[in-house]
Amino acid sequence: MLKKYKDDQEFYSLVGIKPQTFYKMLEILKIAESKQKYYGGRKNKIVIEGRLLMTL
């Protein structure tokens, strides 16, 4: 789970994108991951939010 930030500006300065954009990207990734997991595979050790933050 993501840490709570004071405001959108703090999130933007740390991550580099607006929180709204981040959550939209997260929705798209969750849909893609569910389609991929339909065919099987191993569980990821890092949650999807963490993987997205590392990518950014």
- Provide the structure class: mainly alpha
Query: Any idea what the shape is?
Result: elongated
Describe the biggest sheet? Answer: none
Which bin fits the share of residues in helices? 55-70%
Q: Beta-strand percentage?
A: under 5%
Average pLDDT metric = 87
Order of helices and strands: HHH
Number of spatially distinct domains: 1
The rounded distance between the terminal residues' Cα atoms is: 16 Å
Helical segment count? 3
How many DSSP E strands?
0
Low-confidence spans: pLDDT under 50, at least 5 residues? none
Radius of gyration of CA atoms, rounded to a whole number: 13 Å
Structure overview:
With 56 residues, this protein is mostly helical. Helix content is 62%, strand content 0%. The protein has helices at 8-15, 19-37, 48-55. It starts with 7 loop residues before the first helix and ends with a helix.
How are the elements arranged and paired?
Layout: H1 8-15, H2 19-37, H3 48-55
Keywords:
0% strand; mainly alpha; 62% helix; elongated; 56 residues
